[in-house]
Amino acid sequence: MSTFTFLWRLIMYRPYRYSFNALAWTLIYLAPIVPGLITKQFFDSLTNESAAAYGTWGIIAMLMGAAVARVMLIIVGFITDVQFRFRMGMLLRRNVLEHVLKQPGARAIPCSPGEAISHFRDDVDQSEEAVSWSVDSFGMTCFAAVSCFILIRIDAQMTLFVFLPLVLVVTTAQLATTRLQKYRAASREATSKVTGAISEMFGNVQAIQVAGAEHRVAQRFRRLGDDRRKTMLKDRLMTEVLDSVFSNSVNLGTGLILLLAAQKMRAGTFTVGDFAVFVYYLTFVTQFITNFGKFLTFFKQMTVALKRLTALLQGASANVLTAFNPLYLSKGERNAKREKTEGKSQDPGGDRLNRIEISGLSYLYPDTGRGIVDIDLTLERGSFTVLTGTIGSGKTTFVRALLGLLPAAEGTVRWNGRVVEDLGSFFIPPRSAYTAQMPRLYSDTLRNNILLGLAEHDDNLPRAIHAAVMEYDVEHLQLGLDTMIGPRGVKLSGGQAQRTAAARMLVRDAELYVFDDLSSALDVETEQKLWDRLFAARGEATCLVVSHRKAALAHADHIVVMKDGRVEAEGTAQQLIQSNDSFRKLWFGEGS
Amino acid sequence: MQNKQKVTMGQYYDLLRRYLLPQRKTLIGLALLLFASIGLQLVNPQIIRFFIDTAQSQGELKPLFYAAGIFIGFSIVHQVVSVLATYISENVAWKTTNTLRGDLAEHCLSLDMSFHKSQTSGAIIERVDGDVNALSNFFSSMIIHLVGNMLLMAGIIVLLFRENWLIGAGMTLFVVFAVYMIQWIRKFAVPIWTQWRQVNAEFYGFIGEQLEGTEDIRANGAEGFVMNRFYAMLSRMLPIRLKAFLGFAMMWNTSIIIFAIGNALAFAVSAYLWKTQAISIGTVYLIFYYTELLAKPIEKIRTQMEDLQKADASITRIRELFATQSLVTDGPGTALPDGPLGVEFRDVTFSYEGDTGAPTLDKLQVMLKPGEVLGLLGRTGSGKSTLARLLLRFYDPQEGVVAVGGVDIRQCKINTLRKRVALVTQTIEIMEGTVRDNLTFYNDSITDDQILDVLGDLGLLDWYGSLPEGLDTKLASGGGGLSAGEAQLLAFARVFLTNPGLVIMDEASSRLDPLTEQRIEIAIGKLLTKRSCIIIAHRLTTVQRADHILILENGSVIESGRRAELAANPESRFSRMLATGLEEVLA
């Protein structure tokens, strides 16, 4: 998608709001025309009393009236601007977020979450800015046209001689700002070196103190600081030179007017009022050029932003970004949505699971080339299968590929004999539920963290909490299930987080439960309880468990040993102890 | 309130004296430039007045051209002066804040571990970088802008008084009114703005959590739930954003109205004076021009006052940091003996929470002769690592004495102590920088040959050969690109490069696979000749070379003796460990 199409589609998301906003801002930019004319009137009324249409008080009243009108327009302008910008920016964020949530969960974003957030924030802001400034440049252009018309009518020759050189100077300076990028980049790099050095100094304080290197490290830090000062100064000097060209162009223009007006003023063909209005508009004309330059810069940055946002989509078309979707900001939209969801009955329910057949499932991580190759496995209804193997043998990768959380390269999965097309959207409740190896909790109440939007009915929540051995912890939280957890609330221990995730899984009635290393942060006693209760609570459900704990292995009616991304052996614990060397090591521990 | 104000003034003075005074020559130059710039801004309207009056009275043409020429000339000079002034003030600001930043960093590095454990490194970075950055404006533009603009404003008013007392008095009233109004309106706008920033932060926090938890959301079918929360958040954000921006509009509008009032006032007074023939038309324009010129300093002073408030908070925090004293202080500097160092803990009691907390070490007695190796065993939390930290004086015990080489370590200089006592831990801290920097910590006196010898001892020459730029190869922060084992070996190499009398290895080989561990056994053996050593371990293989074994539980010794004797005694815990495996006994 070209940047221009992108801009256009964003505008077309809410075309009326955009047009209304453009109209409001054009009027705001046109407003200073009036005080200019009033000032001219004032001086003319003094020098040539016969020409005075209004008295001094009349002029003052008009001046105040114009200011009040402009203030009103600005209020309207800010409302229309926020209303449009917010919708446009949030549409982008909504579309990206929705797309990310549809991706294979373990590879939903191509970068670190921190980086992705900066795309969500900064790149969308850049795009917002570009669209918003398109309005401003339009308004400013209108102002330039109207004011030029007025000035030409006063004195065409003077307008030409004063404004032409000025426009040239300011435009050249504006173009030169692009050259600033080089200095900007250098100073930014120096800055990041300094901040990097600080975080390393204090991240590695112990090593530095052990080595007795405090002074040497600080010395190096000072050197980096001095490098930053030098690059910063260069950057500042360039910026300041350009800035002063902009701000001083008004003074230079005034000088030019003086030079040209000397004769005419003496002859009386150019009044003090004319002089005043010329100088008054000068300020705004230079502002026009800088604002236009700003728009161009934002437009350029929008190209980069578009590229980054598209990269976040991992190969999907950029059209996803600007797809039309409601944001449910108005009551009408919200009501329509409620009716829709009420009309749609609960999911028809997954068909009863009899058997899952996995054949030839493969996934290789693009960066390391490791992964799983050609896995075959059959899960029968009600079975309890444990996947085991050493670290890095591909257990988690297998589970993720099966559930569509990683995009499997090859292989088929059959549910009751039927091939599943899109694993990711198929393996969700009520067909399956899952606990990740490192489950994530959200800044919300414990209740919402477990339910994740699921309705509470009968005693599903207390049952899930009991099965996950959470009841004791819930009792001891001050507000019980309504306790806020996460960074701004109570911080749960690793074991508590894992059991919350287990409850999250168990509260969903599913045919297949998949848990990845559920007990890794639990003590022996809790773990034993958990497996016992799980076994009792699961009913007829099928379980696929990743674990190398004896407690889990003892419950299993089928064990799969993985090694180097392949299935090494399968069978019951008894069989495997006899036949498989790696299983023996896992079962008896590696010994000290 | 009065008192607090005084403290703040004192704080400003302190900082200015310490960091700005050394630059006083530059500052004088800066002040001169500032005066020049103000003078040029004030004189220009006078030229225009001369021009208009001369033109109106049909005077000669030549002076008019001169006036126009001078006006343009002054404008250009003013431009040069203002660029120069900004450059110099920026330079002063960077120099002062760099010194301040360096001093703060060095001060923080010298503080003891209880300080560093109580602060996240993020918080310290915020102090050393964030707060000092906030001050940078205080040091540079504050002086230029605040003082400069106040002078400019005063100059304008004085010149207006010179024209006529009425216009002077009118404009003085106007300035007071304008500053007051702009300050007053801020009271309404700023809180909403803060609220918006907070909602915004919450929003991105939410997005971040979703992006980190995509696996859980997807597999548990919670996309709908997430999107609904997203929409709910939007509905909450829009009104706040609207209010925040209207607050911003209010500030803009206030200045529009205020300056319209200013213009109106100028019009009214000058029209009156013109009609009573007290002033010329040129003077009318002069008044108009000065009124317009007033807008800039009033706005600037407002923003500078805001920055001043920010700087206020930063200065207080920086001073607090400077005032934080290390709980561990240098001793008089008793020298440690050369060669291997013995260790003695005499009735050492220590708690991380100070005197009140449960003791981590309880009346601990340890004795190690110079040149011997002590194997320290015990479950997590038994106090093993604490013992190591006390030996390096990351903390001081509440009771008892820790002696190294027969000297109470509180009598030594901390730096000397840490030169003779080396620590290798399981957390390896790799810094961004070259391999050499990481090994020597910027100590230039260590030669490349020494480094290569050590790498050879540790069997790292193959690895060294694979480095594209040898010792100048850059390592990423946190050791990215190094395997855990390699990073661990580099940590050993650091110790090999110094000449300690006592080496403490805290789970140092836990990340190495058995093969590598065997390989460096020989190197460690070499390192430990003529040195004492304490090995803290989970695995029994690691303490094989120990002469003595000490088992800790809850901060006390529950078993101690020569390794050979303990192993031979079937009643000892150590021999039971050997028989059943360490984990079983300790778990």
UniProtKB/TrEMBL annotation, chain A:
Short name of any one Pfam family annotated for the protein: ABC_tran
Domain of life: Bacteria
Keywords, alphabetical: ATP-binding, Membrane, Nucleotide-binding, Transmembrane, Transmembrane helix
Main location per the UniProt record: membrane
Record bears the keyword Transmembrane: yes
ABC transporter domain location: 356-589
Keyword Membrane: yes
Family matches, as PROSITE patterns: ABC_TM1F (PS50929), ABC_TRANSPORTER_2 (PS50893)
Localization: Cell membrane
InterPro entries assigned: AAA+_ATPase, ABC1_TM_dom, ABC1_TM_sf, ABC_transporter-like_ATP-bd, P-loop_NTPase, Type_1_exporter
Protein name: ABC transporter ATP-binding protein
Source organism per UniProt: Paenibacillus mendelii
Taxonomic path: Bacteria, Bacillati, Bacillota, Bacilli, Bacillales
